[in-house]
Design goal:
Layout: H1 2-27, H2 45-68, H3 71-76, H4 81-112, H5 115-119, H6 123-145, H7 157-165, H8 179-194, H9 202-210
Bound molecules: protoporphyrin IX containing FE.
Residues 59, 62-63, 66-67, 88, 92, 95-96, 99, 135-136, 139-140, 142-143, 146, 153, 157, 161, 184, 188, 191 line the site of protoporphyrin IX containing FE.
Length: 221
């Protein structure tokens, strides 16, 4: 079981994520879109959207530092475990509040707003939102459950993830990881598998094209 979840499934997920995205971009570029709903309900996007994306960027930065930077590097830079934990909570908790709060706000707009919004939400959108909700909730629950620093993910999850990237997965590192974090791992893999088939692909365009392209003009009538 451990071997499948931490030695096989990550590669299935990453292969579909990278391969599927390349195939979609190469052969189905015309469908490469975030399917903007701004023209359906503009006002409700004003705060929920930036809050969600700010939380996302903060959480992303936290993941890069916590997962990709080895513990000995932060220690060599003079940050001991207790200080690291305080810094990570100071960034991680506001990130989780903005990320989850913004997401729930966007979902309220989508599912409890106008009928036009509901009509423009596909089955694939619904599946994606469920998977994203569970990923964000499990990450936030992991952070909250670990406020007292009983579990050190930089001794288990982080080196395991780096071993996956180095193509030599050390699944034994994940043996005693608490269930909530194991669930979080499963959910990010599900997110990666869904990625190429959903509107999430827009996040790859944003840094390269979005900021430079001309505005799309929506007329009221
Ligand atoms: C779709 C991708 C992912 C999403 C949406 C996501 C979401 C989240 C959120 C919202 C939090 C809580 C906020 C925070 O502490 O900043 C969190 C925490 C966490 N995530 Fe993720 N995550 C993803 C991928 C990953 C991956 C790939 C890993 C590792 C392999 C990971 C490991 C962790 C850990 C260890 C924590 C706890 C951090 C702490 O307590 O300081 N996550 N995640």
């Amino acid at each position: 079981m451990n071997t499948f979840f931490y030695g096989v499934l990550p590669y299935i997920a990453l292969t579909i994520f990278i391969g599927g995205t390349i195939i979609r971009y190469t052969f189905f570029e015309r469908g490469w879109t975030t399917k903007s709903s701004e023209f359906l309900a503009k006002k409700s996007l004003k705060w929920a959207n930036p809050i969600f994306h700010l939380g996302l960027l903060m959480a992303f930065g936290g993941h890069v530092i916590g997962i990709l930077v080895p513990k000995f590097v932060t220690e060599a830079a003079g940050t001991d475990e207790a200080t690291y934990h305080m810094i990570s909570l100071a960034g991680g908790l506001p990130a989780a509040v903005l990320f989850l709060g913004g997401f729930l706000w966007l979902m309220k707009r989508r599912f409890f707003g106008s009928a036009r919004m509901k009509a423009n939400t596909s089955s694939m959108d619904k599946l994606l939102y469920l998977v994203l909700l569970l990923t964000i909730l499990s990450g936030t629950a992991g952070t909250l459950s670990n406020i007292t620093a009983g579990f050190d993910y930089r001794e288990s999850i982080s080196p395991w993830f780096r071993s996956v990237l180095m193509l030599s997965p050390d699944v034994s590192l994940m043996k005693d990881v608490p269930a909530i974090f194991q669930f979080h791992m499963f959910m990010w893999m599900m997110t990666a598998i869904l990625f190429p088939f959903t509107r999430l692909v827009h996040c790859l365009s944003l840094p390269f094209e979005y900021l430079m392209r001309s505005d799309i003009v929506y007329r009221r009538k």
